[in-house]
Amino acid sequence: MGFFDKVKNKINNAVQQPQQPQQVYQSQEPADDTVDDDDGDEQVSSGAYDTAGFDWDNDEDSYFEAQIAIESEGMTLTSLTKDEAYARFGLRDHLHWQDVKAAVWHCLAQKYGSHEVVMQRQMNFQQGLMLRHQQQQVANMTKGGGFEPVEGITLEKWAAINAAIVSGASHEDLLKGNGISQARWDKARVEWEARMARDTTFAIATIYGQAFQAASTGKYSANVKEANAARAANRDMSMPPPITVRQYFDVLYEQSYAPEPVAALKGMGLTITDWVDLGTIMGYHIHRTWAHHIKQYQADMAAAEQQAKGRYPNAHGRDVDIQF
């Protein structure tokens, strides 16, 4: 693995995305025509569907959490178990849950105008669960002493210097300016890399990634700082993305199929820092808009890959690490 891939992987590991939501079950039309899907002015009647104990209109998060707990087969970040969800919301059995799930999704889709909006809201809720889980992992690592400086060099300092090196600054000048000898730097690097490799919670990678990009001086530095702030608050970005999604996929597959990825980036006017920053910015933007534009994004991905294959017919392509 080259230095370019190491840098990308460290940042990618710092951004843990929730899995895409499972396919939802749309309910059948009620027999009494209480709800009219085609008329946006009609209000959903609570009695039209069996929504069990879910207050979907005022507390959709409880429904999203219950769905994750029930369908995650024990792999869940919620504090709720499947049995607890059944008991709390009056679910009799699996068949009853399927009917209730269909009804709640139907009601939410009418409330927001489409199933795509509901799916996106569920994805955003899952992102919040991941965020809180990772924050707890960082807190646990801090309590356990995992962030103690090595040779007087903090994780944040190590990340910031690495960011400057990747941006083209002189390694020797940076160490001298920070009063760090080469021997101290080497010991710190070995220990921080070892800690990161041992850390299965990705707490160290999370803080490393945040510090690395906080020190970014690339052309997208303002955008990446906003993207990280938005991710930390589980909200949409306040700044528009600097490029289109199709342009991002073009770069993604160009550097994947090109024989020399760093040279390919340079040919597109991008540095490694720019590319790492773009991955964070566009990855988060795509995640926050995935359900709304899934067909277009999939088409853009396919077209961009075919375009790259056409330019490099003998290449097989490297792992593009697409993480939404």
Computed Rg: 23 Å
Quaternary state of this entry equals single chain
Estimated share of beta-strand residues: under 5%
Strands, total number: 0
Number of helices: 13
**Mean pLDDT, as a whole number?**
85
The biggest beta sheet reads:
none
Low-confidence stretches: 1-46
Query: Residue share in helices?
Result: 55-70%
Give a written overview of the molecule.
- With 324 residues, this protein is mainly α.
- Among the domains are: 46-112, no CATH class; 144-229, no CATH class; 245-311, no CATH class.
- It is 61% helix and 0% strand.
- It has 13 helices and no strands.
- Helix 11 (245-257) crosses helix 12 (261-267).
- The longest helix has 40 residues, at 272-311.
- The model is unreliable at 1-46 (pLDDT under 50).
List keywords for this structure.
324 residues, disordered N terminus, 13 helices, 0% strand, single chain, mainly alpha
